[in-house]
Amino acid sequence: MSFRNTQNSFGSVSKFLHWTIAVLVIVMVSAGWFMDNLPDAIRGTVINFHKLTGLLILLLMLIRVVWALLNVKPKEPPGTSSFQKLVEWGGHFFLYALVIAQPLTGWIGSVAAGHAPFLGSFKFNLPVEKSKALVTLCFQAHTVIAILIIVTVTLHILAALYHHFIRKDNVLIRMMP
């Protein structure tokens, strides 16, 4: 397996980033719906872990964007229309934007609420002042983005399955570990 992408397949770094981020995002979106119902004794610890994991996703996504810009993208399968290429590009762009915006809204909202994520004694602060209005805006956006991620990831999975089972091309296989 190649470290870098080739004309026919994604390399090991692209696959690692794709699947690591995918698993983290699915776990985070799922866990996010249940955090408000946690017992008080563990809520703070779980929420801080959620915030730290969000920052990890943000870092991995930024690395993924840079890696994608520095690597060749595998060729589209024969017979892929211009419209399909546009939908694929737009879908990936939208998904990348959502997965970057999601931790940013959580991070900004947390800092604006006076509850920056922390690791030991180190706080991941931002130059954001406390603001109830900003907290409300950020966490409303955080919820909407979570819903958009669920819809977009579902469409992404359906598209991969369409390619594999209906078009019978290598789109899904070239991203498999």
Task: Describe the structure in brief.
With about 180 residues, this protein is an all-alpha fold. The protein is built from four helices and two strands, in the order αααββα.
- How much of the residues is beta strand, in percent? under 5%
Number of helices: 4
Number of separate structural domains: 1
- Biggest β-sheet: count, sense, barrel? 2 strands, antiparallel
Features:
177 residues, mainly alpha, 4 helices, 2% strand
Task: Write structural notes for this entry.
There is one protein chain. The chain has 177 residues and is mainly α. The protein has one domain. The chain has four helices and two strands, in the order H-H-H-E-E-H. Strands 1-2 form a two-stranded antiparallel ribbon. Strand 1 and strand 2 form a beta hairpin. Helix 2 packs across helix 3. The relative contact order is 0.13.
Task: Describe the protein's topology.
Elements: H1 12-32, H2 40-70, H3 82-112, E1 118-119, E2 122-123, H4 132-167
Antiparallel strand pairs: 1-2
Helix pairs in contact: 1-2, 2-3, 3-4
